[in-house]
């Protein structure tokens, strides 16, 4: 008998990219546990992503994490024992256009989940955060004790959520752990981030906007490795502790674009170097150590280049998933508003 066999895990943001992979992992590893997917279905959440997962044991509740009545109602009705929160506004470029919505979800929403954790004596709450809260580092690597120095409205909001979790643990003993993941890639990623956006555009033969000189560095981790790390923290993480989840796999953006061009069979002409739309807020490099999570028994397993190619193949084979998404006004309006002045006729 495993401790999660009788658990009811509320996965907030479970209809999004990483959250849906986490629900798949839970359903596969612990078929006797119950999962409640709690998701607002913003532009980034899609029922098509989780439709095949829904069952008597995996149910769906639509709601916003910043709305205590809906959160508490879902916990009471389903006798929730654990919470893992993926729900967030998650895209840096959108946070340049509309920073306020990020504060409502990424800060206030975390506060509401902390309060609910206390009220309903939830056994463990894992708050999923990002390495971006540390800011940019030219040399060396951040660890969990590094100061948080976020540079974008997105990363500042995530840092606000992390600090709510910390303060609730210190003040009220809330059993909350925070995870900070590197940049994720894999199937079902909304087509707005570097790899998903470029894959979908290149597969259509459209130009892709590379910001600045393309030498920015991110520490990339496959979504499956990230989810296994989050599960490890859910099972073994010490409350009040932060856990970095990275792969020590650093790549420049332009190196990734090269793989994407090869795998889609396109050439350099489709890469349009544009003036950096993030300006001062474009972090040069993300890098961190993940020794603390490794000490819990986790280690990344996926090979970057193989999995980037597999991700492109997935987008090639699963147009049913992304074609309806990119046809929606909410997608097209963002692409026009953010890239219109840079891509012009190539939009
Ligand atoms: P995503 O944008 O694909 O999905 C977010 C999900 O949350 C969507 O299903 C959306 O409908 C839901 N949501 C948004 N606001 C909500 C609200 N107020 N209430 C309830 N649901 C809401 O995001 P993702 O890429 O899967 O990221 C998941 C989490 O992981 C985020 O917290 C993000 O900060 C963090 N993270 C992401 C990455 C990455 O590279 N994508 C890396 C590290 C950490
Ligand atoms: P992104 O995938 O948005 O993740 P994050 O901002 O969280 O790191 O961006 C990854 C890198 O790719 C970042 O340096 C910005 C760059 N980028 C582009 O050059 N063009 C694009 O269209 C996008 C979305 C990102």
Classified by CATH, the class of the domain at 8-185 and 221-245 is Alpha Beta
Number of strands: 12
Helix content: 40-55%
What class do helices, strands and sheet pairing give?
Answer: alpha/beta
> How many distinct helices?
13
- Name the CATH superfamily assignment of the domain at 8-185 and 221-245: NAD(P)-binding Rossmann-like Domain
Bound molecules: nicotinamide-adenine-dinucleotide, thymidine-5'-diphosphate
- Examine the secondary-structure arrangement and name the CATH architecture of the domain at 8-185 and 221-245: 3-Layer(aba) Sandwich
Q: Explain this structure to me?
A:
- 44% of the residues lie in helices and 16% in strands.
- It has 347 residues and is α/β, with parallel strands linked by helices.
- It has a domain at 8-185 and 221-245: NAD(P)-binding Rossmann-like Domain (Rossmann fold), CATH 3.40.50.
- A seven-stranded parallel sheet has the order 3-2-1-4-5-6-10, with helices on both faces. Strands 7-9-11 form a three-stranded mixed sheet.
- Helix 2 (47-50) links the parallel strand 2 (34-39) and strand 3 (58-62).
- Helix 7 crosses helix 11.
Descriptive tags:
347 residues; alpha/beta; Rossmann fold; seven-stranded parallel β-sheet; three-stranded mixed β-sheet; 13 helices; 44% helix; globular; binds nicotinamide-adenine-dinucleotide; binds thymidine-5'-diphosphate
